[in-house]
Every structure is written in C-alpha cells, then in structure tokens.
Request: fold
Amino acid sequence: MTGFTLTALMRVLVLALLAPLFASPADAQLGRVLDRARDRVEDAVRDRESDPPPAESEAATASPVASESSPAPVASSGPEPAPVAQPGLPAPAADLFDLLMTPFDTDSGRFHTPAHDLGGLFFGEGPAELVVRDATGQVVASQRYDGTPWQEAPRFVDLRPRQSLVYATEPAPGSYTLALVVGGATLGAVPFTLSVATGGDAFTPTTTWSIEGPWATTAVLTFASDDPSAPLRVNYWVLADDVPGDRVRVLERLSRDGTEVETATWSYNPSFGALYAREARFRVTRADLADGTYRFEAATEDGVRVRAFTFEVEGGDVVGHPDSALDTPRERFRTPRSATRYRGGWGGLVDRFWVDAE
Reply:
C-alpha cells in the first residue's frame, strides 16, 4: 500500500483493538466490522515490511538533488562538416581581401569584428569561423559566422557574423595567424607578428602595439568585372609608422614605362588606425591600359615613400599573380575575383590583380 505510512497503519490497528472494549452487545455487528478492518490492517503491515528497498536509480529519479559542484553537461552538436569541393569546381576558399580588411587596434593589441561580412568561394551554406592562432596552433580568439551563397552569384558565399571576435587570452608579443576555418579546414590565412612598446611614466603609462604582416607588402588592382570602361582602383594598406606626422599630404603617382599617366592625392591622419585600408581612385580605365610596365608610388610631399610596386600589362590586360591560380594551396591563395556588398546587399563582382610591393 502506498497511501499510508507505517505510523498511520499502527494507529488504525490500535483503534481497532480498543473499540470492542467500549462496545455494548448491541454493537456486536460493529465489532465484527472492526475485526475485519483489523485483519486488513495487519495484512497491509506485513506486505509493507516485505517490500524490498527502492533501487538507487529509482531513488535518484524520485528525489533529484541539484549540485553546484556537478553542473549539467553542455550539449554538443559534434564536429561541423568540412566544405566539400563540388565536381568540376576548385576547392573551397576564403576571400583573402576580406581577411586583410580586419581592423586592428594598437591600444589593445587585438583585432576587432570586421565592419563588413567576410567572403568565401566554392562552398555552400553553413557555419564558418574566423580564428587567431598563436605559433603553437592554439586558438586564442574566434568569431562564428553563417555562410549563405549569393543568389546573384552562387559560387560566392556571404559570411555574416553571429557574434563579436572573442579573445580567450590577453595579447602577447609573438607570431600568429588570422584564418578562416570551415569544418576544421583552413580556407585562407594571414600570418602576422605582434610587438609592444611601453612608455609614459608612473602616472600615465602607455602601451602601444604594432603589427607586421602582408599589409606592408601587398597591393591590389581592382576593376568592376566584365566592364572595360571601369576605372582603376588601387587598394593598399598604410601602417601606423608609414607616414610621419598628422594631416600629411600623400601623392599617388601612376606611370607607364617611365611616363606619368595620372596622379591622385589624399591626406593622412593618424586617427585612421594602424591598418588603414587606402583606395586610390584613378580616372584611367581598364581599356586605357596599354601594354607596358606600370609603376605605382605613394609618397609624402617631402619624399617619404609609403608604398610602391610595379605591374605588367600584356595583351591589353593586367598580368595576374601566380598565387591567384585556382589550384593554389588555400593558405596562400589570392582571390582573383570577389563579390562586393553595397548597403548590406549585393554590390556586384570585381576582378582583383594582386601585386607585391617593394
């Protein structure tokens, strides 16, 4: 019986035994009823005593106890599927241009969440991760993304962040890699080195971080795809120490075989940040580029060179970088074409010609 405790059963038994002492002959029928009730109680007591104790698993189920020392396990969805190359298409890849656009903060020594989405190529919908690895391969920062192929160009994947870039450790001088990872596969990587300088005094100490990597030796010529009339855009990165002073005028000269083609100007401001992405805009179009050797040079009016490189035009078009070949290992692959964004939506395709700066 489960409705009574042993104490309650004993109380009923005592009442059943005492009742006949106070009963009159006229109550004989009531006495017989009580006798039968006493017999039932005694049988119930014997049955209760003979039941085995509950098993430990049953007791735990009946009376759960929360424990702060044993938190509930976190559910895991298991490893994410690696991107699979589709028949007839190149291996999945990251858009290196977008990785290089990740902003860096000299005060904290950390990258920040990109102000735009990242790009990928030749894989489908699914999760991705932007990671920072130290020299041992340990992940020290990560940021999750969701990838969706563009409807306008399904070979290109738009990667939108789920969260901010989260660091697991404090920054430290050393060698690192910024990489896009999908399903454990590295689709693109940017190696870099961090160093730190301290200054000030006991009252106002200062800490300034510096970064070295491909930003100082890389430039990109950009044209709108399939448009011979598209003007030339030159993308390069200006590091914190490249331009001395504040509001310094910088001249950007483009020449062919020693003859000036066009000059653009702009003014540098230290508030632009440690990895300022500069885009020089020229009027000269892709169709205007005659065969020859071209030189781009950005320098201050005082002659301090900021960036310089040369490129070749053959057969009426710019000669591409060897690492833009579609079978290049993904950790050094330089994207020859990118999907751009405009106000959060589709912005069209652009061709990119990568060059190594002097």
Remarks:
- The chain is about 15% helix and 45% strand.
- The CA atoms of residues 216 and 237 lie 7 Å apart.
- Confidence is low (pLDDT under 50) at residues 1-10, 12-34, 41-80.
- The chain has three domains: 1-48, 84-212, 214-319.
